Amino acid sequence: MEWEFTPEDVVKGRSAYGLAEFRYDLAEEVRANVSGDADVLTRTYHLLYDLCYALATSKDFEAHLAAYAYDPPTVQFLREIQPVMAGNVGMLGAILQRQIMNHIEASMPLEHAIHAVAEWHEAQVEDRPL
């Protein structure tokens, strides 16, 4: 995806781009680049979103791939797509960092802010719509 602002703009609060917008944009990117029925689009979206989130939250890429070891084509797909997703990973990371900063600016200790944002994120993606 391409934006008219940078991840730094998001972190510093100069852009109000948030998680809902990111998820929408990623879904549109999947629709534009993946052929198949709704099930294929949904699975691809979730696979790519999970990759972005894992890498944006500093999960080791190989550890992330281990969850898909039962499905070698998926592992190969993720290996191939990972470099292409770097910009999306950076933007999602910026969105999460901005949320953490919002809590810190409200006097919440860092560890509590990280935990609060993780819970917030889980609630936001719980129903996982495309």
- Number of E-type strands: 0
Q: How widely separated are the two ends?
A: 16 Å
Biggest beta sheet summary: none
- By secondary-structure content and strand pairing, the structural class works out as mainly alpha
Please estimate the helix content. Answer: over 70%
Task: Tell me the number of helical segments per DSSP (H or I, 4 or more residues long).
Answer: 7
Strand content: under 5%
Structure in words:
The protein is mostly helical. Helices cover 70% and strands 0% of the residues. It has seven helices and no strands. The longest helix is centred in the C-terminal third of the chain and has 20 residues, at 86-105. The protein is globular. The model has no long low-confidence stretch (mean pLDDT 94).
Summarize the entry for a quick read.
The chain has seven helices and no strands. It is mainly α and 130 residues long.
Give the helix/strand layout.
Blueprint: H1 7-11, H2 19-33, H3 38-56, H4 61-66, H5 72-81, H6 86-105, H7 110-125
Helix pairs in contact: 2-3, 3-6, 6-7
